[in-house]
Write a structure and sequence with these properties.
By secondary structure, this protein is mostly helical. It is 72% helix and 0% strand. The relative contact order is 0.14. The mean pLDDT is 84.
Length: 260
């Protein structure tokens, strides 16, 4: 019931969310000559450098390695950016929170939403790379909205929990940075999952990002529809993260004013 009430409130404050998202995007690209084009160029440049290093040094036997790498990289960047931005959303907006009443969860939500917009800006880069490498997109590419929607919910849940915790414990900024770095190696972004030794397979099994990256690759890399078993796991992870995030945020939000 609480989650339903939150979504009704989101609709009620839709204009404020629009303003917050627009502000975050303008702030990110302020005084940038290329503006939003960096959202497309940045993953391409990083992908080219990473692909040259890993495909040459380690000789991973992955067909269309550049597309494999780009999809994994874009998905992980969205997770890291959205949750990282959401984590500091309450502290960054403390002057507004102190002056007027605004549902506080709008701030982490707007940060995740703005990161989602940035992710959408990178999709042309993925389509360009699909065409360049001969993996021509078909009508199935539209099914990417399924893993995208589930990951948006997952990141929102994680972002709500982080935003609440960091108000009380500033060390979460540093601890979460370490965790994101560890996740980047524990998630098969630049290496094939087959090279992970059997006794370390549990790292993939218990890594939520593994399933989301796999869901995106099933559509954008393999050119098919997202598998039902993958989407089922992603749905369970997304709903669990959202429920936990809402519970933590709701319990802590009444005392934010004392710590910001």
């Amino acid at each position: 019931m609480q989650i339903t009430a939150y979504f009704r409130s989101l609709y009620r404050y839709k204009y404020l969310i629009y303003v917050l998202v627009t502000r975050d995007i303008k702030k990110k690209y302020r005084r940038s000559v290329l503006g939003v084009l960096w959202s497309m160029l940045n993953p391409l440049l990083i992908m080219l450098i990473t692909a040259m290093v890993f495909s040459t040094l380690f000789r991973f036997a992955i067909e269309n390695y550049v597309l494999y790498l780009l999809v994994g990289q874009v998905v992980f960047t969205f997770y890291a950016e959205s949750t990282g931005f959401a984590m500091g959303s309450i502290l960054d907006n403390s002057p507004l929170i102190k002056k007027v009443y605004v549902p506080k969860y709008l701030f982490p939500f707007s940060r995740v939403a703005s990161s989602c917009v940035n992710l959408l800006f990178t999709f042309p880069a993925i389509l360009i790379m699909m065409i360049y490498t001969g993996a021509w997109p078909t009508w199935r590419v539209v099914s990417v909205v399924v893993p995208l929607g589930l990951m948006l919910v997952f990141c929102l849940g994680i972002g709500l929990a982080l935003a609440a915790c960091v108000v009380y414990f500033r060390d979460f900024f540093h601890l979460y940075g370490v965790l994101v770095s560890a996740l980047s190696y524990a998630t098969p972004i630049f290496y094939p999952e087959q090279i992970v030794p059997e006794h370390y397979q549990f790292i993939l099994t218990y890594n939520p990002l593994y399933y989301f990256v796999r869901g995106f690759r099933e559509v954008l890399y393999q050119g098919g529809l997202p598998h039902m078993d993958t989407m089922f796991v992603c749905a369970c992870l997304a709903l669990a993260a959202l429920a936990i995030g809402v519970a933590i945020f709701r319990r802590a939000q009444n005392h934010f004013i004392l710590y910001i």
